[in-house]
Amino acid sequence: MHNTPVTLEEINKKSLELILSGKNQEVIDLLTDDVLKQFPHPSFYLRRGLAYKNFEQPDRAIADYNKALEIKPDLSDAYHNRARVWEQKGEYDKAIDDYTQAIRLNPGDAETYNGRGVAYDSKGDFNAAIADYLKSIELDPSYVDAYNNLGVAYHNLKQYDKALDYYSTAISLDASYPLPYLNRGSTYEELGRPDVANEDYKKAI
Questions:
Q1: Interval 173-192: pLDDT, tens
Q2: What own/partner pairs with CB < 8 Å and gap ≥ 24 does 154-160 have?
Q3: 32 SS3 class
Q4: What pLDDT digit, counting tens, does each position of 125-137 carry?
Q5: What is the pTM of this model?
Q6: End-to-end CA gap in the chain
Q7: Rounded to 10 degrees, what is the CA torsion of 110, 154, 182, 176?
Q8: Largest CA distance in the chain
Q9: CA distance 165 to 188
């Protein structure tokens, strides 16, 4: 039989292990409301919130992130994670607000700038998105997703040469990542170069 975690340290260790392993249901089963009343630690609400998000139960995820912020109002991760759930719900203004709070609390986090850029992109504010993506790669020059997202934003602005440059940079940083190949192929198609586009699509498979 498996021993059920009963102390704060045991629950912390087990819930971290489960969320990192993607065992979302087991996280929810471990971090019950009764357990969280006994051990109201903000990290536990973050982990259960992430499990709910992964199960596409955004309202429950938001409730857990709200609780984490009640306990620790300066918890940047709670704002960041709640922003991702607002995006899941298509509420991009709320996502931008939460990303902005996370940036205020932790201005050196490249992932949060990239996340806010995606939210701006989803609203069609491509210039604001580009500013955030550029800040993201300033903070982390090896952040592949931010380069890919810059390519998407410039493609949407019909600045195809810049889009190609950023997709190519993303590929140079991680040649195994399929998304920049797919996006670069789409840009080549837009430019009337289906032969080159097909080469990229093949590499994405």
A1: 999 999 999 999 999 999 99
A2: 154/126, 154/130, 155/183, 155/186, 155/187, 155/190, 156/121, 156/124, 156/126, 157/126, 157/127, 160/187, 160/190, 160/191
A3: coil
A4: 999 999 999 999 9
A5: 0.91
A6: 44
A7: -30
A8: 63
A9: 12
